[in-house]
Amino acid sequence: MNLNSFSNIDPTLRKYIEENILPSYAGFDKAHQIDHVNMVINQSLSLAETFPETDRNMVYAIAAFHDLGLINGRTYHHIDSRKILEADPFIISFFSGDQIRTMGEAVEDHRASKSGKPRNIYGMIVAEADRLIDAPTIIRRTVQYGLRHYPELDRDGHFHRTLQHLSDKYGRNGYLKIWLTESENARRLEELRHLIDDPAAIRTLFDQIYSTEHPTNQ
To answer: 165-168: long-range contacts at Cβ-Cβ below 8 A with a sequence spacing of 24 or more?
Structure first.
């Protein structure tokens, strides 16, 4: 982590989150472990520098709590994450009721599949920070998820599932939206879309990744 990013974070809040919140991510799937939440925290704090009106403690806490609802499964994790944040005794003692309500909305609105725009600037920040638009990483996570949840598929089946996911989420008519032009995500998304337009190139990258994730099925 960039220590300079934490210069405006209350040390008591940081200590609580590092000791009581972040360790929970160690039990989640490979795409949502501690390295992921650390990335979202750092990118959220970096984006917040562009918006001086934002409260850095709120930004930090929102990023830290944004995926905690995965403890109950993925489908409603954004809603469950909000409930966990709003019920946390330390959060209740540290922030005002209005702040907690704003933070809860941001946590709930971070999900990429949400059809509408996040309700506040904090939601837009964490939504952008949560997006790692990098083709090898996205394909690897898609393969990992597929191997775990669709073990009956063969290599070709996993490839077509990966291609469909890339198109549905990141394609030119995909559901992922960019909310802050200040982030690098717009440029990265356009690069990824060029790759999506070339299925042969995706297949080459997919085969390399699939062979490392499932080496017994060559």
So the answer is: 166/138, 166/139, 166/142, 166/192, 166/196, 166/202, 167/196
Q: 139: left (phi > 0), else alpha (psi -120 to 50), else beta?
A: alpha
Place of tokens 């994450």: 81
- Residue 66's φ and ψ, nearest 5 degrees, are -60, -30
Q: Spell out the SS3 assignment of 38-66.
A: HHHHHHHHHHHCCCCCCCHHHHHHHHHHC
- What does the DSSP 8-state code read for residue 112? T
Report yes or no: 116 and 87 within 8 Å, Cβ to Cβ.
Answer: no
Q: pLDDT tens digit string along 61-81? A: 999 999 999 888 777 889 999
- Do residues 145 and 29 lie in contact, with contact meaning Cβ atoms separated by under 8 Å? yes
Q: What is the pTM of this model?
A: 0.75
